[in-house]
Amino acid sequence: MSATVSTPTRQRWLSALLTGRPHQTIPATDGRPYLQRWYLIPRNRILNIYLHRFLASDDPTLHDHPWPFLSWILARGYAEITPTGRRRRRRGSVAVHRADHRHRIVLPRDNSGREIPCLTLVVTGPHVRDWGFWCPTTGSGPGGERFIPWRQFGSGGCDAPTTTGDFRS
């Protein structure tokens, strides 16, 4: 998951969809494409349906989302890392999460070490919160984490200075 969010194409929704090119490509912190997104219905405030092609694993820091969502893996798979462990998600599996669910996606690698892309269908509910990254804090005891809003999460990750942060434990 990159904190950099690209601007969706300004082309009309249906004509953009029919080209086969993604409506949005989100870069990783190194600038390479991380996620391609197609809007399967016009974007709106109540319910959205996206086709996602993960091209790279998420940033190592756990993140949450602005909306509750359902993710259905259509091709390949990934490992989902959460505060409680690691779960392998394969083609056909469905995950339903609240907006505050913390996780990261890790793609499998082929024999040459390249990440294997994954295709998912994502259905989101309405925007219910700001999203961001959850960084461990030192000296705060077990479970201490610092929430960094996505707009303040720089390429330096948790070690990058931020102007504000919400400390949670």
Task: Report what the structure shows.
This protein is mostly beta strands and 169 residues long. The chain has a single domain, classed as Jelly Rolls (Sandwich), CATH 2.60.120.10. It is built from 1 helix and 13 strands. The protein has a 6-stranded antiparallel β-sheet, with no helix packed on it. It has a 4-stranded antiparallel β-sheet with strand order 4-11-12-13, with no helix packed on it. Mean pLDDT is 88; it is low at 165-169.
In short:
With 169 residues, the protein is mainly beta. It is built from one helix and 13 strands, in the order H-E-E-E-E-E-E-E-E-E-E-E-E-E.
Radius of gyration: 16 Å
Runs in which pLDDT lies below 50 for 5 or more consecutive residues are 165-169
Number of structural domains: 1
As a percent range, the share of strand residues is 35-45%
Q: Give the overall shape.
A: globular
The CATH homologous superfamily name equals Jelly Rolls
Instruction: Please give the number of β-strands.
Output: 13
User: Which CATH class?
Assistant: Mainly Beta
Which topology does CATH recognise? Jelly Rolls
Distance between the termini: 23 Å
Helix segment count?
1
Output mean pLDDT: 88
Helix content: under 10%
Please provide the ordered H/E string of secondary-structure elements: HEEEEEEEEEEEEE
Kindly name the structural category.
Answer: mainly beta
Fold topology:
Elements: H1 13-19, E1 24-27, E2 33-39, E3 48-54, E4 62-63, E5 69-75, E6 77-82, E7 85-90, E8 94-97, E9 104-106, E10 118-124, E11 132-136, E12 145-149, E13 166-168
Antiparallel strand pairs: 1-2, 2-3, 3-10, 4-11, 5-8, 5-10, 6-7, 6-9, 11-12, 12-13
Organism: Mycobacterium nebraskense
InterPro entries: RmlC_Cupin_sf (IPR011051)
Protein name: Cysteine dioxygenase
